[in-house]
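Researcher: Last one for today. Full complex below.
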Amino acid sequence: MALDFVYIEDLAQLEGTTGTLKGWLYNKRGSKGLYFLIVRDGTGLVQCVVNQEEVDAASWDAADAATQESALAVTGRIVKDERQVGGFEVQATHVELISQAEDYPITPKEHGVEFLMDRRHLWLRSRRQWAILRVRNRIIMSIHEFFQEQGFVQMDAPILTGNAVEGTTTLFGIDYFGEPAYLTQSGQLHGEAMAMAMGKIYTFGPTFRAEKSKTRRHLTEFWMIEPEMAFYDLAMNMDLAEAFLVRIATDALRDCQTELEVIGRDTAPLEKVKSPFPRLSYSEAVDLLRSDETTAMLNAREAALQDEQQQLTDERDANQKAYGQAKKWRKRQIDAREIEINKRLSEVEEALRNIPQWRESAKNFEWGSDFGGSDETVLTWHFDRPIIVHRYPAVVKAFYMKRDPDDDRLALGMDVLAPEGYGEIIGGGERATDLQFLKDQIAAHGLPESAFEWYLDLRRYGSVPHAGFGLGLERTVTWICGIDHVRETIPFPRLLGRLKP
RNA sequence: UGCAUGGUAGCUCAAUGGCAGAGCGCCCGGCUGUUAACCGGGAUGUUGCAGGUUCGAGUCCUGCCCGUGCAGCCA
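Model: Here's the assembly. Have a good evening.
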């Protein structure tokens, strides 16, 4: 197919030729007789130079009239210029205004979260969002490639279900022709059925949780990848999860250099995502949490934060003192810096408020409870790569988990915790195979056995050892991108109190 | 749901209980290589809502609404 225009990502192959770009105006600078149009087309950014002496009057008028996010077609010579974004520049010979944008609300300056979230449909055009969502795309491709190359069959679990797997409080209920139904919370039970048909499968679909959680880690609608493998035990499951994450990180580092740079991701921590991952049993993790080593580490972090707080406060005071005599450009610089300082200071203050509680929570952690968010964060601070925690107390895990044959109090579950405080991105384990054990567990969890008859059939007809896990896509993208909130990792996030746009 | 924190110009944010301000954006003018360009000028306000204290409230008090984060729960 021959296109009558070229894409910015292909400019390197087109150096020295003349081509037409079609895109939107990202930013504009100018002086007398000269405009610099920064154009985006979805594949990248490029600067187009419009010189009044080298274009016709209509082209000059078009460049003059173009406002932010106006649609443009720019024809010109493609030249290399290391100084420019993307390394190339287009010297325009013709400019056409395809459509003029009204006042675009998102300027190249800073905006608040609520303002941007209300305009998410436009925010997607910003460079940082472009980069994050391209990393998401790369990760999705890595996931499919990883499983497909190993003979896994992708199978979708239903989104409408009648099964309440872990209690109905976190399920979105709907009316299914007069019958109660729910939006799925996990495809796992159906995944098990499909694994008994195909051997190795993975699901890739949306899941819904009606948790009233307003945190940087929670969405009410998110995408989950759930592999399920017949004849896999817990150790094989952990090996697979580890290889899987190494693949995702390696691919992103190799293929998303530009995107990670735009986001400002320090890639050094990602370079360390290599096998083997540290593996701790739950009991070992509890010992580590309670240890003097953990207390010392938290003390050191606290001291570092206090130093930073002092430095920032000093800098702000010095700036305020200098403000009176400062030149205009310097005042502007100080204003911008003050906003940065205040933002960081409130983060530091928050952390300083939290650390004493975290230290107490870790020191007094009791064997038998589940880890809180802070405990997970504290654990991961001890390591430079993802860690796997396995063999949890059965009481804190789901009914379908297999018990540890060596210790009946334990379930053969495992979680993978991402480094840098990103926390749980994978949860899974080996599934119970015994029919009577499952019936007892369903009863013990207060679940209606009738709803699980089909699931119990899997144990009646050729029950085999099997295992699997679930990966939260958005949490994984958040970690790989090194950003602080899941809401930027999905095109249209669904959060508590947010259903639009 | 509990705790913390915030709501001031279109946006991001300042303002000891004492004349509501800056930068950006917008409009006008200048500038032939800018990098969130720069320089000069201009317009822009129901300080979230409702009460209260006070000579005087953006600031203090009470209630409500909305945002953000943390906890619980989880991927």
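The mean pLDDT of chain A is 89. DSSP finds 15 helices and 17 strands in chain A.
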